[in-house]
Amino acid sequence: MGHHLHTCQKYSPPAWAPAWLKAPEERFLLALQPTPIHAWHPPDVPEGVQVWIKRDDLSGMQLSGNKVRKLEFLVADALQRKADTLVTIGGIQSNHCRATAVAARYAGLDCHLILRNKRHAAEQDPGLVGNLLVDRMVGAHIHQVTKEEYGRVGGTKLSQHLCKLLLSQGKRPYNVPLGGSNALGSWGYLQAVQEMLEQFGKGTITDIVMACGSGGTTAGIALGNYLSGFGARVHAYGVCDDEEYFYNFIDGIFADLGATPDVLGKTSRDLLFAHQAKGAGYAISRPEELEAILAVSEATGIIMDSVYSGKAFHAFQKDMQANPDEWQGRRVLFLHTGGLLGMYNEAAELESLIEKQGRAHRLDVQAIPL
Ligand SMILES: *Cc1c(COP(=O)(O)O)cnc(C)c1O
Question: pTM value?
Fold first, then answer.
């Protein structure tokens, strides 16, 4: 059977998925997949630890990163329900909102985004930097709220409010949850485990390492890794909340999938290790994190983002240094979840670090004999 992008197909879960797992029936193909895997030699990895990288940053171009896999199931659901508009919410440079805006157009849907911005900035036009360029080039409708309003009202209520407003205008909105992280969206990463099995087989990879933000990627990987027998240790590096929050949130997704503790015999605490990688706060970088990102890009050509993959990778490096026995002899798969577009918003912070490498030089064209 061909793999035609931008069509809805019947979805059959992998053979290892038990019958009690609540599976979707349709999938709207969006991602370029399988995403590549290659050996990777980033700096500050102790000798004796082998690292591979799975390039989910290459799942597309304007539609790229980990959200694309979740949107395959969420968009299919929206189409099945005859929605005409996707609604979602996130930070001003949200990769998830940008991916949703593009996926909406691919599927012939309209898109409304609620974007959280600094108080003063929310009064003004958000501009065209980074993810916003794509949001706006695909014609997403942007509704800004301040951080304070977001904190006070909450993302769920804000989204419900906008959906009601659109309904009253005769639209048929479909609410995509924060980060695409609900049970349905997590199927993107249950399915990704099948892809990894086909790429590696069982027993090759001992550890999977990834950033964790809204939790759906980790939920899918951790459950798929267990149910399929892929058999790796799963490490989620949280960039916004603490470990307890993520264990509880992921247990909620498991329950919605039908994988309650009595059915599964396990909870998220048995299936993954949550680590803290928040640093100075969500989307706030410390110099050491930006330096680690630059060291990796200079040495290997891989560009990680400062909000998710870079923070996770930096915390992973620290963890290997602090607990060498835990990591000695391991074969690690680092999941690159994307985020490059957001880096266009970090130019001011990166400037002084990049200037340390030396300024750009003027080529002496006068010296060329004509
Ligand atoms: C959203 C995001 C993540 C986190 O994934 P979740 O499923 O929300 O936990 C990681 N990396 C990037 C680049 C993202 O945009």
Answer: 0.97
